[in-house]
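Hey team,

Sharing the 4-hydroxybenzoate polyprenyltransferase, mitochondrial run so nobody has to redo it. Sequence (399 residues) first:
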Amino acid sequence: MAPPALFRAAAAELRRRAPLPLPALSSLLSSPSPQSPPSSCPDPSPPAHRRHLITLCRCPRPASASAFSPDSLYDRILLPSHFSPASPLSTSSSSSSEPADKPPLTWVDNWIPEAARPYAMLARLDKPIGTWLLAWPCMWSITIAAIPGQLPDFKMLALFGCGAVLLRGAGCTVNDLLDRDIDNKVERTKSRPFASGVLTPSQGVGFLGFQLLLGLGILLQLNNYSRILGASSLLLVFSYPLMKRFTFWPQAYLGLTFNWGALLGWAAIKESLDPAVVLPLYTAGICWTLVYDTIYAHQDKEDDLKVGVKSTALRFGDLTKYWISGFGAACIGSLALSGYNADLGWPYYTFLCAAAAQLAWQISTVELSNRSDCNRKFVSNKWFGALVFSGILFGRLVS
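Structure output:
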């Protein structure tokens, strides 16, 4: 039986049993009229014989409704008030009240005390890819400097790993201090601690001093040659954030900064530099940085144009893939030369071929107009670094 017929039968039964006439209900079911809206809800304490009518009129008619039909009455009786027509199987509150793009929680949100979280975000502890990219050239250099047939110095690897965390955090702090007037105009960076106002510049300077003090403690555990070489890198760290204001090649300057560990790692083991080994290794790191950071810069190219900062993404434009293909080839060639001069065994070249394939995959498949894909390809460079490190390790063990 159709719902309107059921309601007419129910109204007739109620009229027969109830001592009070029900003309309103009868007229409601038989001839709905836009000019006769249903009355407001009854008194909170109705007579017992009328309590069965509360469901029928508990909800006032919306002002925008033009008519009242038996089908809408049927929905009001049977469906819960929090039911969402757009999601028929759901009985929870409408999803429209939830944030649309709520970022996923990181380990910083789960484990770091709330008062320390802005400092952790400032040091990018929630985004470890930068630490990996800074640490890998150090690990390459320390391992290639190891005695043939032996494992690298694990204490030195641990020291440089901690140093990479601190130096990367210090570099990000300097960068955010100098760029806070730019970051609040760029969609990807406007939530950073200084740009959003969570931290003040004076707090950032204090945090920078704390990181540099810890870094000094690590540097003092190295030999004198390495101390001087390590301290000289601070000039690059502090000046890099300014480069995007003056040149279209800030990625090249970042390569000079991020790959300083290719020199420092060898010096920490040998107390000297062997140009035949470390200079090709350093050059490879610079070319690698030009590949991954140009891909990274394509995320912000529209915002960079608006605020007037420069990058290789803007310099290369539609020719980006040709440029970074050339830098990728130079990176692999320099790594091969460094390994040859260091007398690494055959496993090194096997892993180097795998690293070259990973780099070629990045360059050939990246969608430079897709921000999320650029970020995925950028983050994948931790595996390139791991492949080169594995090749150096096994190549040194069999050499």
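Confidence is low (pLDDT under 50) at residues 20-101.

Ping me if you want the raw files.
A.
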